[in-house]
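ERR on first pass: missing label on line 2. Operator R.T. fixed the label and resubmitted. Corrected input:
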Amino acid sequence: MAEIILEDLAQPDAIVRKSRLRAVFGRDRKAQVGLVILALFVLTALLAPFIAPLDPNEMSLNMMSQPSANNWLGTDDLGRDLLSRVIWGTQISLLVGVSTVALALVAGVALGVVAGYYGGWIDNIIMRYIDLQWAFPNFIIAVYLVAVFGTGLLNVIVAIALAFLDDFARIARSMVLTLKEEQFVDAARVQGFSDARIMFYHILPNALAPLIVQATVSVSYAILGEASLSFLGLGVNPNTPTWGLILADGRSFISQAWWLGFYPGLAIMLVVLAINFVGDGLRDALDVRESEI
Amino acid sequence: MLAVATLVFFMIRLVPGDPIAAMLADSGGPEAREAMIRRLGLDQPVIVQFWKWFTSMLQGDLGASIYGNNQPVKTILLEALPRTMSLAFLSFMIALIIAVPAGILSATRKNTPTDTAVSLFAFLGLSMPDFWLAILLIIVFSANLQWLPAIGYAPMSEGIWEWLKHLILPSIAIGTGFSAIIARMIRSSMLEVMQADYMRTAASKGLPIRVQMLRHAFPNALVPVVTVIGIAFALLISGAVVVENVFAIKGLGRVLIQGIQNRDYPVVQGAVLVVSAFFVLSNLLVDLLYAVIDPRIRYS
Amino acid sequence: MDDKNLIKRAKVELRDAYEYDQRDPLFGLTKDDLRGDQISRRATLRLLAVGGALGLAQVLPGLRSTPAMAGGHSGGELKCAWAGVGEITTLDPAQIGQVLQFQIASNIYSGLMHIDNTLVARGDLAESWEVSENGLEYIIKLREGVTFHNGDAFNADDVEFTFNRSSDPDQSRHSRVIANVAEFQKLNDFEVKFILKRPQASFLTKALERASGRAMTIVSRGGLETLGLSQYGITPIGTGPYKVASHTLGQAVELEKFADYYDPDRPKLDKISIQPVDGVEPLAAALEAGDIQYVGGNPFPTQLIDRMDANPDLMVDVKPGPGFQSIWINPWHEAMTVTDFNKPLEELKAEKGFMVRLAIAKALDRELFIQQGLFGYGVPALGTINPAMGFFFDEELASTSEQGYDPEGAKALMAEAGYPGGEGFPELTLQTTPNTKRAGQVVANILKVTLGISVVVDPKDFSIGIEEFNKMEIDLRLGGSGGDYDPDDGLVDWMQTTSKFNGPTRDTSTKPFGFWSEDEADALIKEQSATADPDSRRALVQRANGITSNKVACAFLYHPVDVLVHNKSVIVPEDARIPGLHELDRISLA
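pass 2 clean. output:
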């Protein structure tokens, strides 16, 4: 009997949350719209080679021509079809958005949980570093890392991931600190579970809520960050069309071809908007207060 | 901060690229190159360079740029700082002007079309890349309507209107995103506060709605908002980096990026120090404000 | 006088200029020619010819009769933009490294001499001069009553100061320019003497000249002392027609008329503001709004030229420019190896590495590149000798060179080299600067479409790029010279085995020579540099140029054009049009 009770206490609370999620999303129109838009973008990214009407890198002498039947969004200064470029750009933007956050999440959470759980000098060292990083705006860190290690897709992903890791580490740590004192943790310890198991199987699932919300926020910033880096010329390889790059290249031709400045930016905005809608919905569903972030 | 300084010093030297070659490009033979290296103290071992820089920094001397005509870094930064500050200040003001009424309005008229409209606007502002907004503003206001200049900066000494003219567009570009965050924060914070006990007390006292809102709800709602402002300040600085680039304003952000591009070590070190000091200071201020607001509210 | 006659006359002048005994220390001129307060056009042409800086482009302007121009009024303020740059980094002649900087500096300082656009060398701060029989001693009488912008009086001490400063490589980048001076003597307050080691034709026309020399551009001792070195570079003090009213880095350079300038007729304008403008759009917006009226600095963005030309308020003048740009090919790359360029062309063409090299050059559709990459504003290049060098330019080269555009020939070569349709050929990286990235993309695309090879554009910041270029750690690079008007610039600086841009810091054990090395070309280039007679020199130059073209020293791409854009309200008289410079003291407003 006692064992069963202990087992119960040691189970994470997450199950309860899941059904709440479904309930709220079902009602929240905003979040639904967000999901739909996101799904569209994801599909575009996956199906890019098939949907894009023309080769995004194919140059022509039809430079800077207005949106027309042949080129729905017009062409750029080298005669390349803007629509195809924007479609292909979806791939990188989403890839960067997701992978950077995934990395940052894993690394940041690991650090934060370890720091919070063990406390003492481990906590000290880790938090020293995190505070150091916290002292800088995330974007500036990313700029700096890219400048040091060079541009290119991999470097950009790592740079942004590293830059965003402080957010996750801090949240994870503070959640661990609060949860550490809860009953189910004592129960688990009494049962002889290893530290690692307790940290990641028992505590972490309960800390998920704010982390998930932070993740969605971070994805939108990661996408904006990649766009900004590309814009500053510090982003991905110039042969790959990313939205930020298209904007940067188009900058010198804006007054002759306004569509170069409008559509890629619109794409960025829509994706980020969708993510924000979804993130908001999640926040409501998981009952996370803004000030916790 | 000291750790920051050390880290920055060594990291920038990791960056590939030879600043001397770039500066000499096609004039000057090997003897000019050696002379320049000697003059800039780059021929000494890195550790010695670090020690020299560190000790002078503590005395307030940040060294001299190794690019161009070797301006002292302090001068460069001192010139850049007021520009970024003006930009930050103006952006902040614009953000507040938009966000405060928007936030309050949307909270008091929850779930009405006004609320939806404001929320939508907030979301849009949040999702727009600031450099995109900057470009759009340039297209409309500079290229087409020609109301405002597209680039540059004019110090206050040239007249308030000149100063304002050059800063309005970039400030709107930065401030809009910022205002979205604040507006949302005000809204949710006020909503929470409006449910609180003391609000019901105020209502039962028969106070007009407006007084309830402004005197009681709003100040209490401010607390978490202030926190968010502090955190979102990072956004202001990051935004400034990109927007300064678009508008060719030589503020801290631009100085930093150019320093990195030119491999101008002293400038980058100095700029990073200043940015982080700035940031640390603003966080401190927020903490202080927090402490000030908090106890007062408990008594109301 | 129509163009044909003009050119005839010019050739006569050129021939005369180049006709002298090389052993004569005074270059066929008499002491009288070199004495006085100005040097005649004929004598100046001679000096320029000997110094290697004389071409058709220099000779022509002086022959054209100046149309009576509605003179502008004096006074007024001119707003200029300097294109393609974010800040005017320095205006200290000892540190100036960019043309756009000394375009401004030449209005703030004076030199001892100044050559006007008709190629008469006039004294600037030198009132008169004489040269000794052996061509080694120059005695210069200085102008009296000249003051610096800060009120200090100018005298021989200032010349001495500038000379000492410029000779010291620790203080000036241009110490080489006056390296031939054995001794400097101050004779009295207004007389100085230079003793040279060897006769040097370009001493008066270049070393002491206001703009091109930079070594003897007279700086202010007092100014340096009061302001300190770095501030002096930002707000310099000189003796020129304009003084700096204010300047902070990144902001405009505000110039105002220097009331005590020694020539009472100049400058015409009261104030000039020179704003560095980095982006393309802001430049266009400012020009169209009338916020600025004159553009100098880096080359004008080609995509705006047509638009500005169509604008009724603006005037656009396009001239062939100096310089060349090419695709440099690393001969030590596995797939493109060429170990010996001295073999006869037929033998080279049998080598796989050379086949690829030639294929790349043949595949360059230069006309298309100019259309797409430069919006039509450029001239196809097949050698370093450009149209602005007039007399020396070989118009036939386009059709006779091995490098001429020939897509079928290029494909055949690739196939013969073992890479039919580009199959199996490794991916190459094409290094560019961030500014030339776009051009690089056009080239990469052309190569892809014609040869089927994959070329990846790699824009690198100049500081990194230059290092790699010098060490030859690249596959391909887009680059070249901004250039002067003399054949020496392209040939000597780039096409010789020992040229300063030919892989100077490479690992010589794995790379015996740089990007290219050919003995006959080396010899020809050396010879033409010392050849007097214009026709003979021309023959030598064209032969050397032909070799560099046929044996693919690099895949030549284009020659840039020189574009001047300004508002119609700005009167730019002929004597203000000196190639590469902006003589703001002769410009006026309508």
